[in-house]
Amino acid sequence: MTQALAGKRGLIMGVANDRSIAWGIAKAMHEAGAELAFTYQGDAFGKRLEPLAASVDSDFMVDADVTDDASLDTAFARLADRWATIDFVVHAIAFSDKSELTGRFLNTSRANFKNSLDISAYSFIEIARRAHPMMVDNGGTLLTLTYQGSNRVVPNYNIMGVAKAALESATRYLANDLGPEGIRVNAISPGPMKTLAGAAIGGARKTYKHTDLNAPLRSNATLAAVGGTAVYLASDAGACTTGEIIRVDGGYHVLGMPQPDHL
């Protein structure tokens, strides 16, 4: 996929540090020739992002709070001032109260349910609404990130499983809405990864080890593999792929039980 994104430009949302899935995607897209812009939330994340953005030749960073309509309006207005059109947006944003990512799902609080669904699922709709006018002339790609906890019970994933299920459903509905305008909407579903977000889930280390031992490829997902998948989906090679949940998990999703040695 060398230079598969040459001449394309887009927005990456959700880089927390150099181990973020969003960063793996950004690096791969840069290597494929894309021009990139970034959002962050708050000064602390902005300071972490600045050298990373510079390393992929980007000087466009804007603070954006996905729970604040005015903040999103400002971010996309600034983006439109920079580029009249964009070719892709990567939505890598999710959140839940860490204290509710252990123990029983039964104990999910109303407040955290609303907040988790708002940030992790509804924000994708808000971003699609704002990105869509910048894509109507030439089409484009909207990408988000999900996880198999959306359709199978994963210990401690709790409310995030429900949020990701909503996100996947939103992906399909947005794909149908925006398809006539040539805008493709897809989600990438990596296996467990050692990210800042992944570390918040109770029992994360056991989950990584279990996947490494049992996935058909005997490996967790890598940033490079997820990034390569994003490049494909945003490139002309992905022109007829929309409404999909693309799994990048070493094949773990095909299993009905662990490998014989680990039963």
Descriptive terms for the model:
263 residues, alpha/beta, fatty acid metabolism, Rossmann fold, SDR_fam, seven-stranded parallel sheet, single chain
Assign the CATH superfamily: NAD(P)-binding Rossmann-like Domain
Radius of gyration equals 18 Å
Q: Class in CATH?
A: Alpha Beta
Strand percentage lies at: 5-15%
Query: Strand order, biggest sheet?
Result: 3-2-1-4-5-6-7
User: Quick check: average pLDDT?
Assistant: 95
CATH architecture: 3-Layer(aba) Sandwich
Sheet with the most strands, sense and barrel status: 7 strands, parallel
Query: Structural class, please?
Result: alpha/beta
Unreliable segments of 5+ consecutive residues: none
Total helical segments:
7
Helical content class: 25-40%
* Overall tally of domains: 1
Q: Overview of this structure, please?
A:
There is one protein chain. This protein has one domain: 3-Layer(aba) Sandwich (Rossmann fold). It is built from seven helices and seven strands. The chain has a seven-stranded parallel β-sheet, sandwiched between helices. Helix 5 links the parallel strand 5 and strand 6. The longest helix has 22 residues. It is globular. The N and C termini lie far apart (39 Å).
